[in-house]
Write a structure and sequence with these properties.
The chain is α/β, with parallel strands linked by helices. The chain has helices spanning 11-23, 63-73, 87-92, 95-115, 152-171, 193-202, 222-235, 252-263, 288-294, 302-315, 317-325, 327-338, and strands at residues 2-6, 28-33, 53-57, 77-80, 119-125, 175-180, 183-184, 207-210, 216-218, 220-221, 241-244, 249-251, 270-273. The longest helix is centred in the first third of the chain and has 21 residues, at 95-115. It binds nicotinamide-adenine-dinucleotide (NAD) and thymidine-5'-diphospho-beta-D-xylose. Nicotinamide-adenine-dinucleotide (NAD) binds next to helix 1, strand 2, helix 4 and strand 5.
Amino acid sequence: MTYLITGGAGFIGSNFIFHMLEAHPEDRIVCVDKLTYAGNLATLEPVLDNPRFRFVRMDICDREAVMALFREEKPEVVVNFAAESHVDRSIENPGVFLETNILGTGVLMDASRAAGVARYHQVSTDEVYGDLPLDRPDLFFTEETPLHTSSPYSSSKAAADLLALSYHRTFGLPVTISRCSNNYGPYQFPEKLIPLMISNCLHDRPLPVYGEGLNVRDWLYVEDHCIAIDRILQDGRVGQVYNVGGHNEMRNIDIVRLICRELGKPVSLITYVTDRKGHDMRYAIDPAKIHAELGWLPQTRFADGIVATIHWYLEHRDWWESILSGAYRETNEALSVRV
Ligand code: NAD
Ligand code: TDX
């Protein structure tokens, strides 16, 4: 069986590729990635020569190229991770979010229809539900919670979800959607909270905490997200949305303090900066449906996962330093020519 996985040179997509190559030794993976600023082909270097893996540098918005690739590869399953994923960038420059996250999803689904795929899976986010108030800890996002977005990023993801559900209803495309909470773990681009704070700590640079640092996110170790998507691909019901999260709510400031403590750095590095525009207060997922239907539960406790992640960044300094210096862009060019 051939899986076509988009956005595989990014954070979650690369972890998913490693997971799938290991968990499904009979299957093949074709990875499509444009290698935007967020794509790092060095991450996939260990599997570039694997006969069960093929990397194709391609923009998911390039309709002709995507259609031709689907005709050539005839994938049975498509998993779409490719997206512009950083909320702050969507506030600075929304346009590319609309193109990749909405139009790109449309192109992939048209190609999936034409190829008659057995499954199209859309990787979505808990941000489509908007936010919850801090004084109502009893409230959680369920799959029935109305979409109520705050940023151009989350709006573009919600639009893609609606488009996917419409392709299921109108054309019978076998769609599933997962809406996951904040991920952390290896290979996360150092613009996101946890890797940014780790890399700044290691350079003794200020740690920019937005507002008062009281915003709450529901953190899940990336491997648990990958396992959840795999479960949905195997046994999920088409036309369904599955929330993915581990009931692990943390205030930003507590995460940043924890990172300082673990790295032996002073909390005096913490600098409170101007808040993000439209900053969502609290995300909290109710994962009851995926647990009841597919038996999924997170396997990694936050206390273990965060220490493992901090150590991963300590041990893979080359990986993120090459991003900070910009050298990874040359590596991307060199490796793209090789594949
Ligand atoms: P990322 O930014 O690390 O990776 C995105 C990848 O997509 C990059 O490799 C990039 O080169 C590629 N890409 C971007 N535009 C493309 C295009 N037009 N054509 C082809 N490839 C393109 O993102 P991530 O954090 O790994 O997120 C992956 C997916 O998971 C996204 O859809 C995101 O919305 C969703 N998600 C992320 C989180 C999280 O905490 N990071 C949580 C829930 C859902
Ligand atoms: O420098 C920072 N300082 C800070 O206080 C950064 C980068 C972030 N923050 C805060 C903003 C958020 O409350 O930390 C929290 C986490 O921020 P991000 O890492 O940017 O993640 P978030 O905005 O929550 O979105 C993430 O989770 C959901 C991913 O980037 C999305 O792709 C995913 O859909």
